[in-house]
Fold:
Amino acid sequence: MDQIFVNLKHAIVGLAANMLPDWLVTITSIKVSIVGIAILGPVTMMYLTLMERKVIARMQNRIGPNRVGIWGLLQPLADGVKMLTKEDIVPIHADKIVHFLAPVLIVIPALLVFAVIPFGRNMTAVNLNVGVLFFIAVSSTTTIAIFMASWGSRNKFSLLGGMRSVAQMISYEVPMVLAVVPVILMTGSLSTNAIVEMQGGWHGMKWFVFTPWGFAACVIFFLCSVAECNRSPFDLPEAESEIVAGFHTEYSGMKFALFYMAEFMNTFTLCGLTTTLFLGGWQGPLLPSWLWFFLKTYALIFVMIWFRGTLPRLRVDQMMGLAWKFLLPLTLVNMLVTGLWYFLSRPLKLTMSILVLGTTFWVLTKLNKPYVPQKRVYQFGE
Amino acid sequence: MDILSLIVKYGIYTVMAVSVLAAFSVTLLPNLFHAALALALALIGVAGIYLSLQADFLAVVQLLLYVGAVMTLIVFAVMLTSRIGEPSSAPQNNQLVLPALSACIIFFSALYAIIRDTPWPVRTPLNLAVNTEDLGRALMGLYVFPFEVISVVLIAVLVGAAVVARKDRE
Amino acid sequence: MLIPYHHYLLFAAVLFVTGIFGTIVRRNLIGILMSIELILNAVNINLVVFSRTTSLAPETGQVFAIFVIALAAAAAAVGLALVIALFRVRKTILADEITTLKW
Structure:
């Protein structure tokens, strides 16, 4: 049961090996993985949109879409038909090639990173030994596509939204990468497979999130990934009440569907990476490995949707202040605490780690006082 | 030679060709934003070349730093120093095109002769594929002094760039 | 290696020469900075190829290349900060229009 997909792939490749020459067998095995990911990615994204709408609706005391199928299960198909049949409007003075290429180039990194996520035991598509760094590098090339979208639209709101979005993404990449460093320190490898296998003790429950540095790093990484996906509460660049729709204002129909798809695929892969790094990936006691992975990832996606339904939006200076003045020093101290954890012995390391982390957190919250304007004094003419 | 190696070989040549074309576009395109995008494509091509040389950590670092960070800087600067409504009618290349072209062609033929004729001392080392651990040991072992110096340089650059680009206080 | 190393060196030479051409020909300051980035990348490829074929410690070239990447990014950052400061004062970034100090 655990290896059902691996056995399926081996059966298909074995079938191909009987009929085709050698080099085609290699290409067939690559193609099977690609087809698996190409089915998984967009289907996940479609049902994620439905899950988000239903969960947000329940949090707002209403029912979500429930007309199209039972429980609204065919709603994504209806959405797809709507997006495909909408008219594709391109502004007259827009830069045609750049405007056309931007949605394509934003989906490419979102799909590429599916290759290094370990979906189950032996179920990583490509086992790179620089897997985590590959993920971060490829997802940082999204910024170029956002620039292209905002510049190609020839629209001041798009430009402003695009620049804010890029500034947010690059600011939150720094604590994100630094929060991954303790995990790399403790496992000694950048490969996602090796990181998941290191979390295997205690019958598959010795996850990194149960250590002080792992918990702090998980929270920081999760907050940074919420910001990277441009979701609430960090969705200033694309919120409708703020800036129309930010960098994807001038896109309609299929191109907007591509932007939407890229955002949801980013959500899924970042939650998948969080479970891989901190929550033990596919490790777990009884259920098949891929089922554990999907349960943990969807639990984190539920938390992201919960954030969207609950928290108000951050202002742009509060957002930047959070990244540079709070999360960044916290990640640096977290690396120090990882060193303490590695070198000290059993009873001392837990207390010291929690003490250092707690003190830093308290000091940083005290130093980052929110900006309170002065009370205004009104003077009336006599 | 079997077909997979042939496919990989022609793939590497294709990546090189795309990279060279993008590099030509950087110098010749009149629209500065398009030139910046062509530079991003050239840098992605160079990352592909690093992968073909089995320098996988360097390829990923190139992608992260150059395409993710330096290109963001360049495109921000392009956006901040240009005006949206103004068409790029001013010629972006000065009158030195023909002299520079002839000088560069002569220089390139000299380089080609040097590359072809010098007897490079080719040796096969013990570990051909460098993994991240070797790089880490080298950085923390033999090259620890440049490593520390470059961290000081980067702090200086960070502070300096922020001060230079700051709006003047009245 | 599937390709003879001369081809990598030629590719690096082409990028280098293109970068030099761009530095001479471009009027726009940011265009000059982009051509300089091309030159630095060509140098990096050369370092990696040489350390892989002619050196007994192939990680030397890659360490060197990492330092060059870091310094190139630093140079681009400072250069672009200067360009932005200059634009604020002179309202232009074409290199042959910034001629105040010429006699």
